[in-house]
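Good day; I would like, with your permission, to put a structural problem before you. A protein sequence and the structure tokens that stand for its backbone fold form the material at issue. The record follows directly beneath this note:
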Amino acid sequence: MKFTAQQIADILEGEVVGNTNIEVSKLSKIEEGTAGSLTFLANPKYTPYIYSTKASITIVDKTFNPENKIRTTLIKVEDAYKSFSKLLEYYNQIKNNKTGIESPVFLSDSSTHGENVYIGAFAYIGENVHLGNNVKIYPNAYIGDNVAIDDNTVVFSGAKIYSDCIIGKHCVINSGVIIGADGFGYAPNNKGEYSKVPQIGNVIIEDHVEVGAATTIDRATLGSTVIRQGVKLDNQIQIAHNVEIGKNTVIAAQTGIAGSTKIGENCQIGGQVGIVGHIAIGNNVKIQAQSGIGRNVKDNEMLQGSPALPYADFNKSYVHFKNLPKIVKNINDLEKNKWE
């Protein structure tokens, strides 16, 4: 699909400096630009590349004025980085704007769907499923019985949504995600054996949530595992049964959250963090990568380490830890001199 400089400027509310009719059909880095590509300049250290780039169109800030001759057509906007991001989002919408039901699929007679849905080949849509308007279900996805998926949500290839789960509007469920698998619930007996505790709850995901590839969200034992509005989950995260994650919290890859833990709003949790079960983490909490959280955490705390300490305390302690051999030697020397 091709776009002219003027069409792009209209989308971005920008001004064309150069050939308004020049066309592009692909995106590129400014240092790797080729004819027919669109790029952008936001970081000043990349400014030299604008004089050599072969990209047909470059998005720049309104304040940019070239000091040397350039070949690329400019589109001047208020903020080049934000405008390029907006264009990427627009491009993604066009690229993924599929509609219709491919063949073969399994579509239960009791299922319903809204307008402009897309259901890819070999997808399975179970009993009493409801898909809203503009929902996209990509090939080989599994949607279990009694699942509801609201408007404008995308479920990519190979994702599995087990029975009774509820997915909100404008969500993205990436490939390999499993939503609603059984929680890890077993009861030991006097023989040292374990009996499975039935997991009969569900998962509720609110609006504008994104779930990264190969992330798993377990169903509740009773009630619901809840992911609140605006949460962003990276790849390969484990969220156990009855966990609740508050609005607009972001969690990086390989984090594990044990059962029944409640995480507040606007938290930022780094990669490979481990969080024990049955605790509460407040709002606006920041947890550094590879930390281990084994206690309740108050609002606005910043933590690091395993077990995690307040961030400033961890940094002070780490200075001493690095000097530990020297400190031990000094102590040994003092002890030796004491007895001489």
The helical segments are 5-12, 80-95, 311-322, 324-338.
